Amino acid sequence: MKPAAFDYLAADSLDAAAAALSRAGGDGKVLAGGQSLMPMLNFRLVRPSILIDINRIPGLAYIEATDNAVRVGALTRHHAIETSPVVKAHLPVLTAAMQHVAHLAIRNRGTIGGSLSHADPAAELPMMALLLDARIAIQSYGGRRTEQARDFFVGSLATSLGEDEIVTDVEFPRLAPGTGWAFEEVARRSGDFALAAVGVTISVRDGKADQVRIGMMGVGETPLRAPQAEALLSGRTVDGALLDEAVASVRSVVEPNSDLHASGEYRRHLVGVLARRAIETAWRRAIGDLQ
Amino acid sequence: MTEVPGQTAADLALDDRQTRPKNIGARIKRTEDPRLLTGRGTYVDDRQARGMLHVAFRRSDHAHARILSIDAAAARAVPGVAAVLTAGDLADDAVPVHAVSRMANYYATPIRALASDKVRFVGEPVVAVVAESRYVAEDACELIEIGYDPLPVVVDPEAAVRADAPLLHEEAGTNILVQREFKRGDFEAEMFAAPVRVKGRFRFHRKTPTAMENRSYLAEYDGGRDELVLHSSTQVPGIIRNALSEALGMPGHRLRVIAPEVGGGFGGKASLYPEELVVALAARKLGRPVKWTSDRMEDLTATSHGFDETIDAEMGLDHEGRVMALTADVIGDVGAYSIYPWTCALEPVQVVSFLPGPYRIQNYRGTVRAVATCKAPTGPYRGVGRPISTFVTERLLDMAAHRIGIDPRDIRLKNFIQDHEFPYRIGSGIVWDRSSFTDCLEAACKAVDYDALRRRQAEARAAGRWFGVGIASYAELTGIGSRISVAPGMPLNTGTETARIRIDTTGGITAAFGIASHGQGLETTLAQVVADKLGVRVEDVRIIQGDSAAVPNPTGTYASRSTVLASGAATLAARTLRAKVFKAAAHLLDASADDLVAEDGRIYVPHTNKSTTFKDVARAVYLEMGRLPGEAREELEAAGTYDPVLGTTTSASHVAVLDIDPATYAIRLEKFVVAEDCGRLINPLIVDGQVHGGVAQGIGAALYEEVVYDDDGQILTASLVDYVVPAASEIPPMQVVHMQTTSPAIGGFRGMGEGGTIGAPAAIANAVSDALAPLGIEIDELPVTPERLFRLIQAARSRTGDQE
Question: Are residues A22 and A81 in the same domain?
């Protein structure tokens, strides 16, 4: 289990990395934390002509609060996000989700840019980006652009990234103070890819649910939002009957695949259970019933 | 208790008088650990040799196919490739080996270095590329063109036994590689007469051992001397030496197999592998050192798998819950070959051998068929057969208890063989010596506060929660001696063990054994025994093991044998050596040997100032001529060979406590208690560790691990993403209670390395069934994955109309 031969470049700037990627003409791969790429190389599932290592590029690993957002550099390790007081203060749902990302050794190496670019439909960070309406900044040899998370994930392990583009940073709009949130996941083992997971944020206006966001993962080709259920909850008081409706709505919109670990049917069941729990918890947090 | 040679009252009295034992029974930290935990252990893959070549295998991607052609021209042309070897290339270099046995109705499949004519499972080695690096070897592997003629694939063992099934081994005339039957008593009449009958079809899926260290082999051939040394990550260097001797046609004194640090085995490194033959053959053929280290995908696809049985079983009981009869028909899916040297009978035959368990079940019939399929061969896996037999019998007992309306604890207490009945021959013919069946269960229930758990369960059920408690009791044969070892008819005696202890001119003490520790801490355990029996300190003793050259009949470490047999041998050898040392010391001290005591390396006459040391005695014997008369200058070396003849009976009761999320169906293990009787403990720290590790592996078997092949014989669990092994976060707090009824073996020890894996699956299956009793769910298939639980609960709810 050794990779096929490849060239290697330790880039010292984003420009150099983007130039090399462009020169590779679709045959290059960017190495950040390597937690998915290295096994794929060893299995010879990917055979890049060149590996462009961005780990030595300065200024790509940071977490900073701006006036209305939290910006996270692409090379920021999962563990840094998990333990960041800035994230905890402004995006507590992200802090909660990060505890489910693999194991500590992997969190010490894996990066947010890598996770988003890899776009595993059962990984936490893509789902969090979608849930929190993140904006993803992208650089290519020709220039820079940004993309909303909802447009970024286009399929299983597929993104809108061009073959010469690199994710540089991710901007998460802050959650308004008092926003209720919850993250619920079921995996076979602690740290495994989710069989299903649900993240929810809810605000309260005049005693009613407002700005409801429901994100799901492990139940489709990409991380998903549940717009019907979000609409269903908006402007209403969350109670048992409404939860039943939301659960039914969530279950009706997903088309989960079957694999060795769970059937689509079980995943559909799970996503409903987790949605119920997450909505209820987020609601209770939003109305001040739960810290 | 009858007196056993080496363990007579006189022997023990002499030991007591002449030494001051302080190590046996002490919680001594493992002497291996400083080097292992600081990365200074040397495993096979850590070894480098000048000019070393690396092997990569082109493996079959067909489950069953005839090999029509192999075109390796392009691979041979890759710069850095030293050789590309096929079965044809090695035809004159080796003969196939066979796991022979005198069992009736048994076919021994030939085992070759590389597949010739046919491939029989996905992952079977077909071509070996030997190159300057593993990278080059893998590059070249991709260029090999193999022409296959696909044959019908056999994956279902029940289909494989049909008359029209395609055959894996045409010469055998059948896919049933062995079948056996055990009968005792009038099981038919008793079953018919039994007022309570419970039965089921039980399924225990295929597992793979997943040792932390993948298999690795390095062969070095000295052409000038025609000598071959194989460094192998094996549990059985002696057995591999014997196999190489047969295959390569070399006598044992020119072959040496060394197992250095070995990172776990669990049975997966206890057999001969084709890759081992290839590495040895390639080194001899090319005259250069050759290494192969398995990657994880190769480990999951081509290391021997374990278990994989379907059991139709029925138990008949009277109204009070006393078992009247037990019958079982077992089909074992043993994969493509009969593994060397154990044969494919090992695993499934043990299932029928141990089904009656620790219970008074005199009317018994067990049949077993070992069936070849297009999958990796099965071999020994920690527990061998007994995790399955225990699962079936313990499930049936719980089902019966439920039916009759008595507590699962009480039905076991009612059926246990009682202390006054030992030795007791069970329905399959196995004889149990005295062991704490009843005491273990009572101790486990006390430790877990069983009655309080039942009260908690009542409250949980009232609140709609699923909370379960599961018991499993079992007995196993460990430290088996020659009479049991030869029973399966293999030309192989694993029932004796030799120790050679020597004191050199510097006073250094070296004890050599034929065993091969691969994580059990045997260097520590055996040093404790030698130290106590000689009267020296643990750190004064160096243990040699894992080397086929250490003793004349080296074997290895498996079957919970090493501590019992090697400690017995060490005791015998140490007594002889102590007598030689005392003879010389008596002269030096002008005292009678009978008055001497050895303690911490010092030899003295109590209540006097007469004293010397082992070191000084060695100097006087070997170097400082004139201090001792000739007759007192015997070479300070002694050998002892021990054979416990039958073996020792280890028993335990496990209790699992868990709850199940009534919506996600996630199982959370809350606590696990083991009360076990492995006789006298040598090192409680190590014993506890073995129990913890075994239970963790049993939890894997119960809830997580399953090798999956699809209908085409493709293996779907070829990475650790898909083959799910529990990690520390999946293991609950454990409590271990020790009974310590001394065994008849020398030292009173029993083997205990496997038990955790034997009891845990059954205990968890019973606990899950217990938690789901309100839904009437009986677990009959392991592992209980979330998906299986989902299906069972959905089905039960649609039966009862119950909603989540």
Answer: no
